[in-house]
Amino acid sequence: MTRNEFGEAYQTGLSRTMAFLLSRGVPNRAVADVAQSAWLRGWERITQLREDAMIIPWINTIALNQYRRLLRGGGREEEWKPEYNEIATNATALNWAAIDIGRILESCRPCDQSLLKAQLLGVTSKEIAEREGVSATAIRIRLLRARRSARQSCEPSVALPQAA
User: Fold this and answer.
1) Radius of gyration of the chain from Cα atoms?
2) Which percentage of the chain shows pLDDT scores above 90?
3) Distance (Å, rounded) from C-alpha 67 to C-alpha 41?
4) What is the DSSP secondary-structure string of 1-62?
5) Is the pTM of this model over 0.90?
6) Residue closest to 123 by CA, chosen among 76, 39, 65
7) In a 3-state reduction of DSSP, which class is residue 56?
8) Are the beta carbons of 23 and 71 closer than 8 angstroms?
9) Separation of alpha carbons 130 and 136, rounded Å
C-alpha cells in the first residue's frame, strides 16, 4: 500500500473507526485519541497488512486492542480528569448499563461472576486460562456457560396458569 492509498484510507476510515469504537462502548472522550493512535500504529506496521482491502477491519482491531490495553492499565496516557463543567452536567446522569450489568452479575454464581468481570474488562480467554492453570478451551466453555446462566437469570419466568 502506497502512502497516498493509506492517506485516502485514513480520510475515509477514521470516522468508521470512531463509530466502531463507539459501538463497542468506548467513552466519547477517548474515541478520537484511540482511533488516531490506531491509525498511526497501522501506518507504523503497514508491512504486516496482507490485503489492502482489509485496512479498515485491521485498523479497527488495532483500535479495540489498544483500548483494552488502556483499560487494563497498560496505557501511557495520563489519567483523565473531568473539568468542573463536565462534572456538573454529568452529575445527574445515571449509567443504566452499568447498573444493569451489576444486577446481572449479582444473580450469577461467584465463579461465573469472576469470569464475566474479567471478560468485560477485556481480558482474553487465553490470559484467564494462564492465570487459572487450565486450557483456553476450558475457559471458553466456562464463559459460554456463564453467559448462558446470566441470560437465563435475566429472562422473565413464565408463570403457568393455576388450576381452579
Assistant:
1) 21
2) 20
3) 13
4) --HHHHHHHHHHHHHHHHHHHHHTT--HHHHHHHHHHHHHHHHHTGGG-S-GGGHHHHHHHH
5) no
6) 65
7) helix
8) no
9) 8
